[in-house]
Amino acid sequence: MRDYQSEYTRKTKTSAKIFAKSLKLHVNGVSHNIRFYEPYPFVVKSSSGKNLVDVDNNKYTDYWMGHWSLILGHSPKNIKESLKKQIEKSWMYGTVNEQTIKLSELISKAVPVAEKIRYVTSGTEATMYAVRLARSVTGKKVIAKIDGGWHGYTSDLLKSVNWPFTESESSGVVNEEEIISIPYNNLEESLRILKKYAKNLAGVIIEPVLGGGGCIPATREYLQGIQEFIHNNKSLFILDEIVTGFRFRYGCLYPTMKLDPDIVTLGKIVGGGMAIGVMCGKKEIMEHADTTGKKKSERSYVGGGTFSANPISMTSGYSTLNYLKSKKSIYSKINLLGEYARKEIEKTFDGRVAVTGKGSLFMTHFLKENITKITNSSDVAKCDLQMLQKYHFKMIVNDGIFFLPGKLGAISDSHTKEDIKKIVKASENF
Ligand SMILES: Cc1ncc(COP(=O)(O)O)c(C=O)c1O
Q1: Number of domains into which the chain is organized
Q2: Residue 355 domain-assigned?
Q3: Is-contact 37 389, C-beta < 8 A?
Q4: Is residue 71 part of a domain?
Q5: Tell me: the pLDDT tens digits for 11-30?
Q6: Mean local confidence (pLDDT), 193-202
Q7: Residue to mutate, 30, 65, 268, ligand 1, most ligand atoms under 8 Å from C-beta
Q8: Residues 370-407: pLDDT tens digits?
């Protein structure tokens, strides 16, 4: 195999210098652990449409797309125009504003369970509050999550993220025994575990397509089975649609799977590339966080923070959703491109990979002898992860294609079939 590392070093000299400075100033040189990859990440200068440009003027067709938040591509013109107008007025009020109401009207129409909404500035906060609310409503402590499920850095949910899911993910986390973990798409085993904790079970939090855990859709039977148990047990069903909300259709995934979640968390796309997290759900549950008239012991204290519902995030989210609503054909276009990518990449590798995903999200897994099918994060962990890193790194160096090494790719409206064909070609060469 070619020495892609020295080629990378040669092509990214300015990035190397700037990243050396970054290393002095920041832990690991980054502010999100996954943004680091060996030997060092390139430093971005600008982005537009499907492209990222680094400080050495290398151009990459981007499939990381801002942690999968940029469904319309980088800096789309119409969103930029509405943001410019808002910036002329102000970028921070710290008070009630109409931009929030406009975005909430769109969300509540498209996501029927969003009878009440609270905004925060990250998905991490949204899931943190969702868990607190579930505990407060039910008066119980235990939250079940999925092996490999990623819901952000919240202390509560920083458990069983990485295979084999038995070791603590971090020191400094307390009460880990109150978070339990169940295997994705394995209903029998999941129910066995849930039953064991049923008495003190406040709720379960699940992604309908495992994102960080390997881009794996849940089966409808699995989610419905978990939900049935949870509701019979008078616990809460929290669906984390931070990745999947407005990704495959205008709205969430749950109605297409005939699910009835109590709380839904959103983020990424609904902020149109600006900082956002959303916690929404059934009125009687969300109103448990109402601070007017309830005793402290009877309500959940759910905040939002200094920058919650700031006019920039609200405007960016509103303009993005409004555009998606007026041009729903975007979904059929990008969903088809995803299908094409999955099929063609699998064909190219001739049985040696499985490309998982749904709609415009896809991820390549290099299979090993004992693993032929990917249904959960354990399967992902048993694949050839080093090969995946090499494959993604080779595309960065050789093909001007950027996947954050080891992570799933997201197709945006700015991508074309030609772009996917380039991935296929790059896969052939690999
Ligand atoms: C499913 C899911 N939930 C929550 C989060 C956390 O969101 P944020 O990174 O905005 O805190 C993520 C982030 O990738 C996610 O994928």
Answers
A1: 2
A2: yes
A3: yes
A4: no
A5: 999 999 999 999 999 999 99
A6: 98
A7: 268
A8: 898 999 999 999 999 999 999 999 999 999 999 999 99
**Burial degree of 329 (CB within 10 A; 0-12, 13-18, 19+):** exposed
Given ligand 1 and candidates 151, 238, 241, 269, which is best to mutate, with the most ligand atoms within 8 Å of its CB?
A: 151
Ligand 1 atom closest to the CA of 152, numbered from 1: 6
Q: Which of 269, 291, 326 is the last residue of a domain?
A: 326
Alpha-carbon distance of 342 to 361, in angstroms, equals 9
Percent of the chain with pLDDT strictly greater than 90: 98
**262 and 141 co-located in one domain:** yes
Specify whether 251 is located in the same domain as 367. no
303/82 Cα distance (integer angstroms)? 28
Ligand 1 pocket member 184 (CB < 6 A): no
For residues 258 and 395, state if they share a domain. Answer: no
Ligand 1 centroid from CA 152, angstroms: 5
Q: What is the pLDDT of residues 15-69, one digit of tens each?
A: 999 999 999 999 999 999 999 999 999 999 999 999 999 999 999 999 999 999 9
C-alpha distances (whole Å) from 171 to each of 27, 159, 283, 409 are 17, 11, 37, 31
SS (H, E, C) 289-354: HCCCCCCHHHCCCCCCCCCCCCHHHHHHHHHHHHHHHHCCHHHHHHHHHHHHHHHHHHHHHCCCEE
Give the structural domain span for 201: 77-326
Q: How far, in Å, CA of 155 to CA of 173, rounded?
A: 6
C-alpha 18, offset from chain centre: 28
Residues 336 and 304 in one domain: no
* φ, ψ (nearest 5 deg) of residue 42: -70, 155
Tokens of 79: 């969103």
Please check whether residues 245 and 318 belong to one and the same domain: yes
Predicted local confidence at residue 369, as pLDDT: 84
